[in-house]
Amino acid sequence: MIHVLLGICALSCFFFHFTDSFRAADGRVYYGFVTPRGLALFKTGLGVEVPRDEKYVMGFVDLIHAAMSVVVFAAIALSDHRVTNCLFPGRKEEMNEVMETFPLMVGVVCSGLFLVFPNTRYGIGCLAA
């Protein structure tokens, strides 16, 4: 069950980096999923014109952000001794050695990549400009 739970959480970290929002002419905020062809609204048939701007097209930066968020989630999840004891029983000493440096390395590398490739999405929970 821990594998399923960690998999679902990792998939949600990946998925939510491909969400974006926009503010329509009526002032309401609409959310959608970013695709290679543009923004696809979660709820269709609303009669709202979806912007066709280039910023609503999935790009390489989106993939980097999604992959790095999964790596950060894995570092945080594996830093808990209860998770590692469940996933790797009998390997407590080895995991303690690895987990002393792994979260720090992931934090440094992912922070650097997030600085080099800034996020411009206003996903679920963020208000569109």
TrEMBL record:
A GO biological process held by the record: endomembrane system organization
Keyword Signal annotated: yes
Domain of life: Eukaryota
Signal peptide: 1-21
Membrane topology type: Multi-pass membrane protein
Record's subcellular location: Membrane
Predominant place of localization: membrane
GO CC list: cytoplasm; membrane
Keyword match Zinc-finger: no
Protein name: Uncharacterized protein
Entry keyword set: Membrane, Signal, Transmembrane, Transmembrane helix
Family: Belongs to the plant DMP1 protein family.
Listed transmembrane segments: 56-78, 98-117
